[in-house]
Amino acid sequence: MIMMLPFFTAMLAIWFGIRGQRTVAITSWVITFIIYLGWLKYHITDKLNISL
Predict the structure, then answer these.
(1) Residue 38 and residue 41: Cα distance in Å, rounded?
(2) Smallest Cα–Cα separation from 34: which of 17, 10, 11, 14?
(3) C-alpha span between 38 and 35 (Å, rounded)
(4) CB 32 within 8 A of CB 9
(5) Predicted structure pTM score
(6) Contacts of range 39-44, beta carbons closer than 8 Å, 24 or more positions apart
(7) Over the stretch 3-49, which tens digit does the pLDDT of each residue have?
(8) Radius of gyration of the chain (CA)
(9) Residue 25: which of 7, 13, 8 has the closest Cα?
(10) Cβ neighbours, 10 Å, residue 32
């Protein structure tokens, strides 16, 4: 479920952009970008277990 969060916030940003609510759309895009940065930091610093 949590994996759908950035897709949901991006969908909201597009929807608000189409409706002409520019401030809310930009805010939604910023929230989506922050979510992506949080996941990026988590996956970059996480230990990668590879069994070869």
Answers:
(1) 5
(2) 10
(3) 5
(4) yes
(5) 0.79
(6) 39/6
(7) 899 999 999 999 999 999 999 999 999 999 999 999 889 888 888 78
(8) 15
(9) 13
(10) 19
With tokens 């759309």, the residue in question is 25
Q: Are 35 and 27 within 8 A, CB to CB?
A: no
Tokens, residue 38: 């949080």
Give yes or no for a contact between 16 and 27, defined as CB atoms under 8 angstroms apart. no
Q: For residues 7 and 29, give the distance between their C-alpha atoms in angstroms, rounded to a whole number.
A: 11
SS (H, E, C) the chain: CHHHHHHHHHHHHHHHHHHCCHHHHHHHHHHHHHHHHHHHHHHHHCCCCCCC
The distance of Cα 25 from the centroid of its chain, to the nearest Å, equals 13
